Amino acid sequence: MTTLDRRAAGAEARLEELADGVYAYVQPPGGWCVSNAGVITGGGQVAVVDTTATALRAGALRDTVTALRAGAVRTVVNTHFHGDHTFGNQFFADTATIVGHRSARDEMLFAGFGLTMLWPDVSWGELRLTPPTLLFDSTLTLHLGDRRMDLIHVGPAHTTGDVAVWLPAERVLFAGDVVLSGCTPFNLMGSITGGLRAVERLAALQPLTVVTGHGVVCGPEVFRANSDYLRWLTDLAVAGRAAGLRPLDVARQCDLGEFADLLDAERIVGNLHRAYAELAGADPGVPLDVVAVFAEIIEFNGGRRPQCLA
Fold first, then answer.
1. Can you name the residues that pair with 23 across neighbouring β-strands?
2. Which terminal residue of the chain, N or C, has fewer Cβ atoms less than 10 Å from its own Cβ?
3. In 28-113, which residue ranges form alpha helices assigned H by DSSP?
4. Statement: residue 192 has pLDDT above 80
5. How far apart are CA 98 and CA 15, in angstroms?
6. Helix, strand or coil for residue 139?
7. From CA 50, how far away is CA 78, in angstroms rounded?
8. What are the DSSP E strand ranges found in 96-222?
9. Mean pLDDT to the nearest integer, 94-115
10. Which letter does DSSP use for residue 306 in this model?
11. Helix pair 268-279, 221-242: axis angle to 10 deg
12. Greater confidence, 8 or 223?
């Protein structure tokens, strides 16, 4: 992998400084597998929040961090186990401790490189599964010099092991995929009810700036947008289940209304499956058949895989 290759992979990515030494690494347009990352500096060292999906993209992120000349990357925080946020861990593991929720490590080891099977045409590169080694259950506070980082477990929401990174002094929140900006939420592997609780919990922090797992950097208005979708989705599931309709049928028949402009609308199928399971009494985060649901997402999408630009 050459420097030129990495530059090409990261050409559309941009580094946005949110506070002194705090950055969002934003990868437009933010759809499937095109995720954001965070770069936090302090005390002559660097922490990276999530590590992108492919070898080329992770290399581009590493080059961007190196160019800051803020010190070695000593900490990587994984907001959850999905490969588009963790496959790049290996590019930082030589100097960094990788931190995540206890269930995120278990889920990562179980899932392996399953994500690559969903989009076999993507150039994933040579990847080595590199799960977190420093695990926690509820909260964990880290310090980079004088800068404080609070890691907060808020799952099950997007997954069971969702972690938000909160910088209380700067009031900057890295929300992972619990909150998305301009993209359809996706809670198939987590919880709809838990997702609502998680959004409320993050909103209560009163951040000024929110870096979502996908999409543009935004403010606290993003919490209302995500909770509105999840409440609408819940009402849709209640009505569809009462009518004896399958989640796929409900998705096909519904009017997306105010949510029609969100990226990756086909995620509604997976969200409805999770909502149906919870309405039937399933615990939040209980595993569902992701492969079968993804097949229905393809069916909903006219027989085409959702577009993945990783």
1. 17, 39
2. N
3. 55-68, 83-86, 102-111
4. yes
5. 22
6. strand
7. 5
8. 97-101, 134-136, 139-144, 147-153, 163-167, 172-176, 209-212
9. 97
10. P
11. 60
12. 223
